[in-house]
Amino acid sequence: MDLTESFNCGLRQLIMCMDYSVNLCSVCGSNSSVYFDDVSGLRYCSSCFVSYVYRKVVRAVRQYKMFERGDRVVLAVSGGKDSVVLADVMGRLGRRLRWVEFVGVTIDEGIRTPAGDYRAEALNLARSVLDRYSIPHRVYTYKELFGATLPEFMRAGVYAGSACSVCGVLRRRALNIAARELGATKIATGHNKDDEAQTVLMNVLRGDLERMVRAGAAEGFGGATSSVGGFVPRVKPLKRLYEREIAMYAYLRGYGFQSVECPFSRDTVRDAVREALDILSTRISGVHDALLNFEDKLLERLGSSTAHVRACRNCGEPTSPGRELCKACEYVLKYVEKKEGDVGAGAGAP
Predict the structure, then answer these.
(1) What is the pLDDT of residue 162?
(2) Is 347 within the bounds of a domain?
(3) Which end of the chain is more exposed for a tag (fewer CB within 10 A), N or C?
């Protein structure tokens, strides 16, 4: 072998070694990587990635002081990947935090599609993870709580905007009702870093500081550790995880994903903000964390004393200042009026 061949052979071996080392996990250094974190530049194998996500959630729980001794926490488990990962990590954490009790709650909106039973599939996914950790599970329906399903509300024209807006109002109310009925002290939701950054930016674009402060008070910012204006306090253990990290964790833990898509899963404003953040994240490293840090600092300075709510004159639940009726009651009353109007028109027809 001449000098040139020897050099080329060595070069090929070096390249092979370099390629192999690049694909190795940055943490253990021995297993092939399955996930690359473009913010930190680290690569993770499946085992190290699962541990990384768990530690990241535990760190957020500690940072935001989410749980206290004696808490009974409702886990809002819809069956989507975020809520399944929430239940899995809380189930694992619950083995250490014996002084916190978890109960799973699923809200059934009554959505049925030609492609399949959207909620039935999600319920099976929710039960699979809750059963894994022997966490009790309760199901509440829009029909039993509000007298109608989400499709029925939308067909009645209770709101001219997106169904997601109506669903969000009713879901928050349903979770509050469920938590109080179950004697829960907190509600844990699966909101991720992408969700939270989008919400912060939406509130800024709308100039809606009041909404930001109310949401922060409900999460316990500014010393608000008890329920604010009738709200059962919310905690968001996944708020520092990217959606892509949650999806990978769910996959590596062996959980299935919903094959039937919600037919109402469109929110034009949020979709636009999501797209804008996706573009910004390619130019500004850590923009999602920056938005969450901005919100944290703002809420720490303002405190919860500036959060104002009033009781709905119809149901007594908390509502925004300046409103006599909460949005949930507004939707329900509009649905009832529409239904009674249709019955009256039918009765008067020849």
Answers:
(1) 87
(2) no
(3) C
